[in-house]
Amino acid sequence: MKGIGINHYGDHRELTIVDLPDREINANEVRISLRASGVNPIDWKLREGYLKEALPFDPPLTLGWDGAGVIKEAGKSVDAFQVGDAVFFRPELTEYGTYAEEIIVEEALVQPKPENLSFAEAASLPLVGLTVIEALMEIAELKSGQRLLFLGGSGGVGTIGIQIAKALGAHVTTTSSEKNRAFVKARGADTVIAYDQQEEPDGEFDVLFDTVGGSAYAEALPYLKTGASTVSIAGGASQNDAVSKNEEKKRIHANNMFMQPTKKNIAQLRTFIDQNQIHPVISHTRPMTVDGAKQAHLDSESNRTRGKIVLVRENEEEIT
Ligand SMILES: NC(=O)c1ccc[n+]([C@@H]2O[C@H](COP(=O)([O-])OP(=O)(O)OC[C@H]3O[C@@H](n4cnc5c(N)ncnc54)[C@H](OP(=O)(O)O)[C@@H]3O)[C@@H](O)[C@H]2O)c1
């Protein structure tokens, strides 16, 4: 199964063609011909070897865990899909990623591609959408009328997170650099705090969603209500004794999370799209080639991406 990945951990120059062994599909799985793959920071963090302890992969592996494509083969017990259906999905985190010609995925993690979205748009949504749904709906249980402080509104997670929080009826205050103020406002943020202009949040918050981590999380704690909930996807919660002490003082429900894809949450994502409540935000696309992936990784590593980067495979062409 040909794709783009690594034989050794290292910088973007390690990206190369990788051909992993094929296998038969199980009864509950589908084989999907990929047309686009989202690019996420986990792709280059894993490539560098930063996640070796948490995710002990033994390369070779193909990268990318965010996809859209067309069903090529359906297992015996699959009833929701047929060969030829266009779909989008976030597969389990295995050595078989979505920078590839095809991938085998459990039926439960796949949803029909919304007709009004291109393959690139659809592939930009699963990983970030599922992350936000798990954080805001399942962990923080964000309610209509609550005040949310969102750290990092302009990135891949932030641009979808603001839209989902607004769909849930929350009041959204987000941080961003001054240059992205109008951009995050246009995604629906009620208030923007420019972190590079020494601006401070106004009032207190029920929920904190942290996509930045480190001091950004620690410095947000004074603005939370007693008993507030925090969810960090960047290791911010209880990151050291001082932070834990400040969380305890305010009886904060503090959570770090690592997203797990579920059937319920990919279906919820599809519902938000169908109800016109969220719209993809693509910074730019690159071809699904080794050179395109190298460039996309350099772009993502800059930590300045607005919305998402997507790799596109036109007309199911061979990956080179
Ligand atoms: N645990 C999980 O399950 C999970 C899931 C998804 C993502 N993540 C992690 O969450 C983080 C965000 O992911 P992503 O896809 O949104 O990344 P991304 O798209 O690469 O984020 C880039 C954005 O971050 C903003 N940013 C950088 N520093 C900032 C700061 N100090 N304050 C506010 N905004 C800042 C930048 O905006 P400015 O130019 O305006 O600063 C840029 O728009 C990554 O570390 C990723 O690995 C974790």
TrEMBL record:
GO terms for molecular function: oxidoreductase activity; zinc ion binding. InterPro entries: ADH-like_N, ER, GroES-like_sf, NAD(P)-bd_dom_sf, Quin_OxRdtase/zeta-crystal_CS, YIM1/Zinc_Alcohol_DH_Fams. Keywords: Oxidoreductase. SUPFAM superfamilies: GroES-like, NAD(P)-binding Rossmann-fold domains. Residues 10-311 form the Enoyl reductase (ER) domain. SMART domains: PKS_ER. CDD domains: MDR_like_2. The keyword Oxidoreductase applies. The keyword Oxidoreductase applies. Gene3D superfamilies: Medium-chain alcohol dehydrogenases, catalytic domain, NAD(P)-binding Rossmann-like Domain. This is NADP-dependent oxidoreductase.
